[in-house]
Every structure is written in C-alpha cells, then in structure tokens.
C-alpha cells in the first residue's frame, strides 16, 4: 500500500495520485498517513467514480480528514464512473503533474 510506504519509508516525491484507491487503512491509520503526507509536503489527487461502491466512502473520509488537517489535497469524483479509469485519465494526470511547474 503506497500510503504506508510513504509514511514508513524515506520516500521522496512531491505529488501522488490515488486512482480509485482501496484504502481500508483509513479507519485505523488516517491521522498518521495524513501527517506523513503533510510532513513530506506531498500534494494528493484522488480520482474516484461516483458509482464506485467500494472506494468512494473511503475516499470521501480520507478527503474530509485531509482537509481538516490542512493537507494539500484535490479530489475528482467522476459522475457515472464505477471502479474504473475515467476516459480523460491522461489529461487529468498531466494537468496535475504539470500544475505549479
């Protein structure tokens, strides 16, 4: 799980994209995950379909807590998309990666 690796290892990056992430560690480890992202100054983009029954609730929980804790986070919830990549995935990624560069 990439969030645990970022939290527990000496990982250097400035941005991370979580595409329909299955993040069950949110319930038990949300504060430590967000604090690690914040401490390492990693900007987060969550991409999730509004019809993704498995991942959407965890994404919303993670996003709300991240905003509360002051993490630089962006979330895109794609209407009509289940647990899949959106058709505009490449553009979304390029826009996020190139933002502020």
What gap, in angstroms, lies between the N and C termini? 27 Å
Percent of residues in helices comes to: 40-55%
Cα-based radius of gyration, to the nearest Å: 13 Å
- The assigned structural class equals alpha/beta
Strand order of the largest sheet: 1-2-3
Count of DSSP-assigned helices = 4
Q: What's the pLDDT, averaged over the residues?
A: 92
Q: What's the number of extended β-strand segments?
A: 3
Report the biggest beta sheet as strand number plus sense, adding barrel if it closes: 3 strands, parallel
Strand coverage percent: 15-25%
Task: List the secondary-structure elements in sequence, H or E.
Answer: HEHEHEH
Shape: globular
Low-confidence stretches: none
Description of the structure:
The protein has four helices and three strands; from the N terminus they run αβαβαβα. The protein has 101 residues and is of the alpha/beta class. It has a three-stranded parallel beta sheet, with helices on both faces. The termini are far apart. The mean pLDDT is 92.
Question: Which helices and strands, and how do they pair?
Answer:
Layout: H1 2-8, E1 15-19, H2 26-39, E2 43-49, H3 56-69, E3 73-78, H4 89-98
Parallel strand pairs: 1-2, 2-3
